[in-house]
TrEMBL record:
Its cofactor is pyridoxal 5'-phosphate. GO terms for cellular component: cytosol. GO terms for molecular function: alanine racemase activity; pyridoxal phosphate binding. Residues 7-225 form the Alanine racemase N-terminal domain. Gene3D superfamilies: Alanine racemase (3.20.20.10). This is Alanine/ornithine racemase family PLP-dependent enzyme. It holds the Pfam family Ala_racemase_N. Keywords: Isomerase, Pyridoxal phosphate. It comes from the Bacteria.
Length: 370
């Protein structure tokens, strides 16, 4: 059976890198853990590394975090479904919101549960995902302030995730102005501007993040060491926190070009082949995972001389003609994985989850965020 491995020590080093970076800019940050899909084994590894707040967009994942670590602050980072108000208040200390009717439902539930539920008001800044229009903020905020058991701890925005709109100093400065105007009008402090994410990190070194932007929520850069803004890597961070491993189940020399009438394959594609390869052969290996388990476009072999040719539902086909590993049936092959490949593997019951290099001791606890 194939499996995905999380290296706790490399995760810890990435965490320390980011923690130092944000501390040097007087920024608080929360860890976005939705990639782990609520997996208890991997969540325990994460919780051994950080005392920061944990963000997720799935309620069941936040419930699991609270079961494992009741003292950990949890943040629900998408506008909640109104029908989930009771559970949101129960399992999320903070939620991101853009609908007044939903906040009213959260207020009612917080009153019933004798809690103060904190919210971040999300503002649309060009990405066209969640968020109220900026010119409606004063009226929206005025209505929220009337609600019992609700506390506005910040305003925020989302960029890059849907339409690829990148953050810049202009957009971030607009958010600063929105908070300043709201504070002056209502004579009430809004503690945080949650406008930073993995894509915003490279702007810090260039001085393009106003100092009032004091909260980041980071997942991809923590787990993959990626510079999302420039589509590269952050120097000094590990890109191999995760490794995917699969077993070789067949090795046979076969023609390079298939024979017979070509239709569409499992993914709806009609593969094309170079006719000059019609009489040639290659050594092919099959490993025991497929598109049910991973996104093969975000998987790459870690051994020289191996090429991914394609995959069906539960098998991935490799060209190992130039293999330098001298593979044989029963051997394991390791693959590097990017974000979407890990996400699909974490959602697959057919991929085991394993931890290596445990024993990281947490740093001095970081002040709770949001």
């Amino acid at each position: 059976m194939s499996y995905i491995t999380l290296n706790t020590q490399k995760l810890a080093k990435n965490y320390d890198f980011l923690n130092h970076l944000f501390s040097s800019h007087k920024i608080e940050w929360a860890v976005v853990a939705k990639l782990l899909c609520g997996n208890e084994t991997f969540l325990k590894s994460l919780l051994s590394v950080t005392d920061n707040d944990i963000c997720d967009s799935r309620l069941s994942n936040l419930r699991k975090i609270k079961e494992l670590s009741p003292e950990t602050k949890t943040v629900y980072i998408k506008p909640p479904a109104k029908r989930l108000a009771e559970s949101i208040v129960k399992y999320a200390d903070v939620s991101f919101n853009s609908e007044l009717e939903t906040i009213k439902a959260l207020s009612e539930e917080a009153f019933k549960q004798k809690k103060i539920h904190r919210i971040v008001i999300m503002i649309e800044m060009g990405e066209l995902r969640e968020g109220i229009m900026a010119d409606s903020l004063p009226d929206f905020y005025a209505e929220v302030l009337k609600l019992p058991n609700i506390e506005v701890s910040g305003i925020g925005t989302n960029l890059k995730c849907l339409n690829g709109i990148l953050p810049d100093r202009g957009k971030l400065s607009q958010l600063v102005a929105y908070r300043r105007n709201a504070q002056q009008r209502f004579k009430k402090e809004i503690p945080y501007i949650s406008a930073g994410s993995s894509v915003t990190i490279p702007l810090l070194s260039k001085g393009n993040v106003p100092e009032e932007i004091n909260h980041f929520r980071v997942g991809e850069s923590l787990f993959f060491g990626t510079d999302v803004f420039n589509d590269t890597v952050l120097k000094g961070m590990h890109q191999d926190v995760f490794t995917l491993t699969a077993e070789v189940i067949e090795i046979i020399e076969k023609p390079m070009v298939p024979t017979g009438k070509v239709g569409k394959n499992l993914t709806g594609d009609s593969p094309e082949y170079d006719e000059k390869d019609r009489d040639k052969t290659s050594v092919r290996a099959i490993v025991d995972l497929g598109v049910l388990d991973i996104d093969i476009k975000q998987v790459y072999p870690l051994h020289e001389g191996i090429e991914i040719l394609g995959a069906s539902s539960d098998m991935m086909i490799l060209n190992i003609t130039d293999d330098t590993k001298n593979l044989k049936v029963g051997d394991e092959l390791n693959f590097g994985v990017r974000y979407l490949a890990v996400l699909r593997a974490m959602n697959s019951d057919y991929v085991d989850k394993k931890i290596i290099n445990t024993g990281k001791i947490k740093n001095t606890p970081v002040k709770a965020v949001v």
